[in-house]
């Protein structure tokens, strides 16, 4: 009898989603594929205009609360930003929410509620994976709410005077906040297993305030049908 750490099982559904989204993004002339090793990562320099960014920033400022962390071992210094949920049916949010899903070619039902995030100087989100770990106690609840996360889309709502870069230390990629820029990456490997190289960090803001929105997509439907 051998006892060894269970390897993640390949997933044809996640593999197919990964391929379909990457093919769609690669075919979009407004998207650029980032030169990184081992992670599928694309960006769009001007996904939102200044007025859309300002609207979302005002909503985040009005509704922010300390960010939370889904983990069996939360650390107090790990994610020090503030967050809020962006109601997908709010008239200012809905067109943006749907345009992100359309950009990736995913049904909006697979998208979690868009999250607004605000980082003051000294605040950060330490290195983490966006995918869920099937060894954590939250896993059954994740499976019941659409399963594993596949793609992440993030939009920077403003320029930041210093700091606040998003850093992928293992893939060797770092990008500074730039108003309106959308970054999207596949959290899975080509075979549909979690890609450890997607480890990333929201680095400390040094000067200014950083505002972003993040949209995580699940393999199944996150939205409950009523
Ligand atoms: O703030 C950043 O640059 C990264 C945010 C992030 O990783 C997330 O929201 O999952
Ligand atoms: Fe993340």
Automatic annotation (TrEMBL):
<feature type="domain" description="Fe2OG dioxygenase">
    <location>
        <begin position="110"/>
        <end position="219"/>
    </location>
</feature>
<keyword id="KW-0223">Dioxygenase</keyword>
<dbReference type="Pfam" id="PF13640">
    <property type="entry name" value="2OG-FeII_Oxy_3"/>
</dbReference>
<dbReference type="InterPro" id="IPR006620">
    <property type="entry name" value="Pro_4_hyd_alph"/>
</dbReference>
<keyword id="KW-0560">Oxidoreductase</keyword>
<dbReference type="InterPro" id="IPR044862">
    <property type="entry name" value="Pro_4_hyd_alph_FE2OG_OXY"/>
</dbReference>
<dbReference type="GO" id="GO:0005506">
    <property type="term" value="F:iron ion binding"/>
</dbReference>
<dbReference type="InterPro" id="IPR005123">
    <property type="entry name" value="Oxoglu/Fe-dep_dioxygenase_dom"/>
</dbReference>
<dbReference type="InterPro" id="IPR045054">
    <property type="entry name" value="P4HA-like"/>
</dbReference>
<dbReference type="GO" id="GO:0005783">
    <property type="term" value="C:endoplasmic reticulum"/>
</dbReference>
<keyword id="KW-0408">Iron</keyword>
<keyword id="KW-0847">Vitamin C</keyword>
<keyword id="KW-0479">Metal-binding</keyword>
<protein>
    <recommendedName>
        <fullName>Fe2OG dioxygenase domain-containing protein</fullName>
    </recommendedName>
</protein>
<dbReference type="GO" id="GO:0004656">
    <property type="term" value="F:procollagen-proline 4-dioxygenase activity"/>
</dbReference>
<dbReference type="GO" id="GO:0031418">
    <property type="term" value="F:L-ascorbic acid binding"/>
</dbReference>
